[in-house]
Structures
1.
Amino acid sequence: MAFLHNIRTVAKYEAKTLRRSWFFRLFSIGALVIFTFMNIGFFSPIGNEPWALVSISSSVPLINLYLLNIGQAIIVIFLAADFLKRDKKLDTNEVLYTRSMSNFEYIIGKTWGILRLFLGLDIIILSIALLMNIISKIMSVDIMAYIWYLLIICVPTIIFSLGLAFMLMSVIRNQAVTFLILLGIAALNMFWLWYRAGSIFDYMAFGLPVFKSGVIGFDNLGVILNQRFLYLFLGLALVLATTLLFKRLPQSKLHTGISVIFFFIFLLGAGICGFNTFSAWKKNVDEKNLVIETNRQFENRNVPAVTDAFIDFNHKGDAFEASAHLKFINDNREGLDRYVFSLNPGLAVLKVSSNGKDLTFNKINHVIEIDPGKILEAGQSDSVVISYSGSINEAFCYPDYSDNIKTTPYRIEMVNVNKRQAFLTDNYVLLTPETHWYPVAGLNYYPSNPARIKIDFTRFSLRVKTKDGFTAVSQGNIKSGNGYYNFAPDSPLTGLTLAIGKYQSDTIKVDSVKYITYYFPGNDYYKKELAELKDTLSFLISGIMRELETNFSTKYPFSTLSILEVPVQFYSYPKMSTQTRAELQPSMVLLPEKFSTLQNAGFRKRFTRLKRNMARNNQVITDKELQVRLFNDFVRNTFISGESYRFVNGVPLNEPTRYRLGPSFYFFKNNFYSSEYPVINAVFESHLQKVSIPGQAVFLSIMGGLSDNDRANLILKTASFRDLLAKNPGSDTIRIVLTLKGDYLFNMLRSKAGIDEFNKWFLNYTDEHRFQRIDISKLNADINEEFGFEFYPYLNDWFNRKEQPGFLITDLEAAEIVAGDRVRYRVSFNASNPEPVAGLFNVSFRTGGPGGGGQQMTGVFQGGPVVGGSFTISMQGRGMEAADISKIIFLGPNEAKKIGIILDAQPRALLINTLCAKNIPGEINKPINNIIKSKNKISDFTWEEKLSSLPQFDDPYEKIVDNEDPGFDKGQQISQSPLKRLLGIKSRGGITYQRIRMYNIPDYWQPVVQSTYYGKYILSSVYTRSGTGDKSVVWATTIDEPGYYDIYCFIGKTGAREVIRTGSADAPPPPGAEPQGESPYQDMHYKIYHDEGMEEITVDYENAEPGWNNLGQYYLSPDSAKIVLTNQSAGRIVIGDAIKWVKVK
Amino acid sequence: MKIEIQGLNMIYSNGNHALKDINLEFGTGMFGLLGPNGAGKSSLMRIIVTLMKPTSGAVFIDGKDIQKHRKELRKMLGYLPQDFRFFTSLKTWEFLDYSGSLAGLRNKKERLSEVDRLLDQVGLLEARDRQANRLSGGMKRRLGIAQALIGKPRIIVVDEPTTGLDPDERIRFRNILSQLSQNDVTIILSTHIVGDISSTCQGMALLNRGELVFSGPPENLIKHAEGHVFKLHLTPYEYEKAKEHYDVISTIPVETGWEVQVVSDEVPEFNSVSIIPNIEDAYVFFMEHKLHADLID
């Protein structure tokens, strides 16, 4: 056929021409080199083989094509725009235009030529990846993924880019303008539009979640195909439009007609696919809003508490039929004339009956309102049977999350993974309580009280009918037969999870707890990689569980712990009402397939690496010992101490990892509720399941910056707890505020009841009331009975007041004394709270042996995105061992106390945690440098003595201007770029307190907090990058009396010496050795303005004393006095804190 | 084969009236289009090769309107544009192969054989594997004619083919065209070099400012000039005077002064001899003298 012949001819020579262009050659050679190295580095046996990437084999082609596609999309723009320009420029091409071929043939030929060239490059790079994939000892090969990704990522991107470039070039006929527009579109795609409106604008598949699970394959193939066909069709339509606009007289009416017809067909196809993509997103948004609106209608309705539930579940492909037999009690104070349950909106209620009698009901979206025909009085029980069927609507889950957050995919390394809350297909089912796959008394979200949660401890039983060859998994003991699985949990649960798939399982019983792992066939790689552990596994598990139980001071409450492997797409969000994520269920943990997102799960690679390192260091370790270490690391990281500590835009964020078993020891065991303070359970949970942040305090004390407590206090400065909750803040904000409020509440209880006494009593109390809901007023009564005080009255201020206390610590003294016939240490200090609200703080000590200056604390920090490299900070100084809380001090409004505490060990520093207060940082570190010897014998080990007046903080002869005071001026120093101004992007620099950055130091004066800095409540200073003296800060005050004044500057040092050592974060120097490198702080230049003019004083930071340093004595008239600090310095950083003028008497 | 041009007008979007009511008819053999730069030759060529649509009028080939039968025309067409210098990164043989393939030579073996034959014919066989864009100007022209000839076209349109060529190349080029014109093909040669026409064309047309001022065999054009071309022997003084009164075609210095050829309606007053004009003389007489005189009339 001449038609195909002409297309092939044009394509052949277009490809040939393109292949010979230097631009394409550079790109393809560069791509080949980069991708070869990348594949060797990531996927080959000699490479890094990061577990997140190698665990699921579809990652290999995905990462290759994902990255290549980005580069390709840009290059195609250049080459395609060049296409018409070249045709326009070269008269030589006219000899081709006079040949017998249609414009359609010519343009299609050109398109096919470019497409096949790029596809050829893609295939070559995929072949390299495939080779690595094949020779890898870890990965399997998913050949279909190679084909899928080539088709869904590359082809539509190239065709759309070509079509758009052709079209724009045909219309605009200016290559430079076309380039700019196309590059703008590409940049917009990558940085702004990539996830918006269901990724409808994402022509590059940059943010489209196309990850293919090794278990269920694509979970969103419909969405993917619609989105990709949108751009394929649009690209083809644009190519055809180019043929119609092409500046050559058409030859074939037939081909012109075909172009017109197919242009409209493709346009229509693109429209349909676009509509499907958009409407899928819009439907989710609408349904989410509908859930919120429905909840708003019912959020004030009383609901019963379900005590027993039997669920009969029949799996029917992508739907199911079920009936729920529910027994419940009215635990409200009023009677119930309607029973309100909620059930996933994708499920239709077929029938509701009670004792064989049908009941009338209304289903309003997801809420079932049942008319029992009677009033269920308070304390009475009833039962209903609800029959229902249908599928699961995932838009129902997490309605409190914004559309953007919900539609943004989550990333494993660099690949985008769809977020799923449930799976219901013919071959796989996963239903968690979050989906309300069975009727639940109460709502999933309370719009007016997002922190409220309704927890029922229900005795569940479940019967599941599945297809042959499929295994049902749920909590409790299992009995199976005749195609049915029966589950009977032996304790009440907060929710029930069901999974159905081709699961295999292993069980081990340790210390009366049955540990069951459910995994997909072939995914039990760990058995082989940790084969040596077989005979010691029980011992290891027992040790780990004992450690957990010790941490939480209570027993694991269930008889089983199931580890359930689920598709990698399963995702949960943190909630305001609880920190427990859906990955953790009562007696069950849902782990991603092949543990792909878990740290340290690539046992084989880690084993080889550690073994090699140890051999290099002449360390002898058996394979078994090493495997024990790997196992312990994995389990601890995942289930015990796991936390995700990272920097986002320079701000440290920490959130509990999804799989921590903490909730098993509180959230799944106890529930405290209050109608007046619905957040109470979340507060208890935050405190009782608190994630410790090892090293954060040390890090902050060296680098400055805000701890979680500080951030929470700054937030609470602007709004009361109640107001803050109503604003539906972000998950990290709510987490830190809940934790702070929980810490405060429990410290208050401990301060009144005694630390040990309360802890012991409360643990017993929660054990005695396990699997029960407890009204907070009952807890109040029980505490009152036990300890003789009520905490309930304090909750009003705690919840509703915005004002914060502020604590001032003065007159710190320490003495060596004889107490109780032995040498001990007495520490005393004055504490005052000049603010009009009460508060409390806790006191602990850093202790150490005599002459403890020899200890060295070295922290190694890997630089985050802001730091951009690794560096080591060494701090020589005193020991930093943590100490338990010694005392909790309660101070009323405008109250001051003298506090005395006796210690067995020599104190090195007083550590104050001000919890909920104005103090920033809230963790104050007061070094104890001077210990006097006292021969007095004392009998009181601790005491608190109320002072008649507040200790004076300021000396009347002194004028101090701190960087927080009005007399301090750091000028208008942040210049915002015009682009940022245009886009309305606010600069974060200089606004909040950040940590000191040793690299990428700000060129403006950035506030930073640290307990060694000067301040009344906020111990802060400002720092900037050193310069030529062009930037400065000013301290100014008014002098009342003329005369000579001593002028001081405050220098807050973190340790005896701080150094920066550039380069890799290698092993720290041995203890006692001098750290090498130079201090970032060196000379600082102060300009002192006085009656005789101005004098410049240089202060050598290294040799300056920590605290006030004298700048000299000057005569000042009653006028404004001023000190200026410039950014001139030979060091890297200049820091300014406070200035003091002291009248010479 | 008969080519008829009827009432052809071309007005560009900038208002330039490039062709004004052109009517022309010619058949097989070489047909020359002569005219100064800007006369409208290239516009006419581009309309004939379907690169452009006329504002009005039509071109018929064997009675078929080429705008309605572009496919048929393009199948029988070989075209060498005026500015045939820029190439993409293709080798000489590849460029010909590309053209040949589009000209309908689908059999690869036959096509490659034809490529080599044509390369040989135009003397480029040795440059077969050289990059086309690195050939010399003359070689590029030869490659241009080779690509215009591939696929055995029945109509060959060559626009200003000899511009910029050295004399050897120009002669070689004319020879190629002469050889071709012996076959049953129509060659339309557009040029402003009069010599290209005289040696090769059976018919010709003269365009000036978009208008057809002459059409017919070159001999007819020459006839118009007969008796109007004179050779004068002039002293330097006379030469200065003669320049003011006559259109000078050529000037040769001789011992006594100047030997000058002029065109004139009447016998010049100087010592003159009437000579038989060639086409170049005829062209000058026609463009500079007759048209000017007609314009005054």
2.
Amino acid sequence: MRQTFYSGGWLYAALVAPILILIFTFFYLPVGLAFYWSFFLEKPFGGGSQFVGLENFARVLLDAGFWSSLWRTFLFMMLAASFGILLALLLALAADRGIRTSRIARNVLIWPKAIAGASIGIVFTFIFNPFLGLFAPLNEVFPGLWNPRIDGADAFATVVIAQVWTGIPFNFIILLSGLQTIPDTLIKAAAMDGASAWRRVRDIQLPLLTPQLFLTFVLEFVQTAVDPFGLIDTMTNGGPGDSTTLLIYKIYTDGFHSYDLSGAATQTVLLMLFVIAMVLVQFRLEKRVKYER
Amino acid sequence: MIETTRGIDRTAATVLIVGMTFILSPLVIALIVATQSYDEFVAAGGISLLPGQHFIGNIVQIATETNLPRQVLNSIIVATSSAAIKCTFAFLATFALVFFESRWSKLIFALTIATVMLPLDLIVVTTYQVVANVAMPLNWLIELGWYASATPTAAPHLEWNLLDTYLGIAAPIATSSTSVFIYRQFFLSLPRAAAMDGAGPLRFLIDILLPLSKTPLIATFIFWFVGGWTSYLWPLVSATSSEMQPAIVGLSRLATSEPDRIPEVPMLMAGALFVSFLPVVLIAVMQGRIVKGLNLSEK
Amino acid sequence: MGNTIELDHVSKAFDGKTVIHGLSAAFEDGEFIAILGPSGCGKSTMLSMIAGLERITSGRILIGGTEVQNKAPKDRGCAMVFQNYALYPHMSVRENIGYALKVAGVPKEERHRRIAEAARVVELGDYLDRRPSALSGGQRQRVAIARAIVREPKVLLFDEPLSNLDAKLRHGMRMELSQLHRRIGATSVFVTHDQIEAMTLAGRVMLLNAGRIEQFASPHDLYHRPASTFVASFIGAPPMNLITVTGDGSALRLPDGTILADHGHTGGVTLGIRPEKIVTGAGTLLAKVLYREDLGSHCSLLVQLGGGQTILIASPFGTEIGAFDEIRFHFPTEQIHLFDTETGLRANS
């Protein structure tokens, strides 16, 4: 860091102490505890813990429910992140053209940021309700065509759609500001070189947008691992069956409804490692396509 | 922009309108249904885009017959305090990290940034344990001391339960330290001269840095305020009584209360709008300043 | 035939504010035209409209006799060199130069041949595989030019291409551009705010002011026969002296009656004379030197006339004159320009 010109000492310590105390207490301690409980078991009749080695991991990894919810989490991440980023990219490209509609769109498209997943989940539950909602007329003609209460795939789709809805604003902001840092003259130069608008998107704008695209993918992967909780809790409660039980929801029910502290902690550890692995893979990929402006 | 491409502008406008429709339609549907009475809603047998006359009635019902007004106040308190903690702590720490010479800075920066990778909701189970007794690490130290000194009596056990308190709900939300990153980028972009007239660190912090940082501070504050407002899983587990629950949790409890009959959809929609009104207005009004202040273009 | 450019009552308005006012002009095939003017005069807008990057509000633009005002940039046969070079940062120099050919679907072999040829013309051979970020300003400039000429365009447009280079490099590039134009022979339009660039490069200079043509003529005429006080004060460094005088049919007098020069004009008029055309050392006028700058080759003297008006004199004999000395000088009648005081337009022929 190039601006340093004060020397350390007490003042330095006092300035960094608050945030360190905060994150050690409410972040690193819980993370550490999750690891702790993944190797220990709570003694049945009150107090204390017992070291059980890898038993917790064995129990979780042998549980088919864990694997299916991990797979669903992965599927959900892929679908929600891809659609969320693709739609946001389309919208950002359109908004970047500086037409009259883009000014209002820039405002409206970030509103979902202010609406909690749990609140919009309630609205979407109603909209997708097979008897009262948007597709109710369709169901009258083709009974049973759409029923997220019975059909697991329908339910999964509703949660993905709701997640895409909530994910658009942030991606849209990042991608649009990325597009706007691309100098106007580059686009003009490409136009003079004979490139059509679509060709300019493909050859100039998208390559120059890679840093922002990577950023959105990293953030989406972290967010889609945990964000859908509010949606699932209000829309499907993980059902029908287990069809929308993502790992984050399973951890919650195991921990707070079944009181299986060690099981929940072990799954937390595995989900943490999964998220970190996904993020690291992306950083590896990003290094390969870097360029200097 | 290259103007000789009317057709493309029309396509762009269409894309934007479709996008806005996707974003707005759930809100519009919620708004229309929120104007209908329960009887009107049941009679229509589903979504009817005919606005009714009962919007005020539904809102009054929300305001008088549910805990939501109180819970909105909880949301304001939790969101404000978590955003305030986030901004203040991160601002002070980033000031130290950028403007002080110290071999610790790299490590501290890494420690704070790592919090971004693992959102709070991921570790609720053990965060719950920590908040149930914040004195836990102290107990470990005491036990260690007791064990070392071989005292025969049982070690004293400290208890400090923050569950169901504003601090206990807000503090874990405040840990995510993205602000450090944003402030750091901003500080590094400042001209060197701003700090070169030999002022002491605190003088410099108060007289120069703080006024210069107004834009990113306001933007991050609003952003984290909205983030605190919309958080759900953590408040759901840490606020056990209805009096302490934030509005989002309160709303979802309303939604799950009556499983068997046709739900009070108009009331729920009114409730969803009721709890979202403040943050949406905040985002809509401050949109430009937020985007500018977060400076997201420079990663 | 030929790659002529014709502007026919071209107007441009942004949000109802007119920035180009019904401008008409014709550029010959192969001509090198400079569009010169102060910032905000509409010169870059003019260039963008020829290129097709900006739509015109009314009027017609013809390139090679064909109306192009409704055509897309790629269908106009123009190539452009931008002020900030506008090189694609994610492409190598080779890809930058060849992008237009690639878009046009030129086969790979031919593409490489033409890239090599363009790179040779601007002397870029060794850098073809580098990224723009690894090049110096002058090298980037060459890449930008190579990219423009590789398509063998009918018209070459330059948008202040030299303004980002340092003074020395700028001089070198000026000579190269001039040679390049002679070799390629494409009709070239060069936008600049630097009169030296305009005067040295162009066959004809279009001087714009607030969206209107002040004068469109050869550099020689611009300097020796300025069409208005605006041109007179814009061209030349230091600029022409402009003095308000009254003619009585035989002489031009200052308000206090001092005779400045012999001339047959009658009535109020603005007298213009270039600082370097004032003859010092002899004559009827006597004035005190307020300020003196020694520039080596000559001296620039600030002199106060009767009535308080100050003028500049550029004198090769300046070194002998000190500040606050009195000097003797006169205005040769054949060097005097007269402008209408109200309209600013040239009044003598």
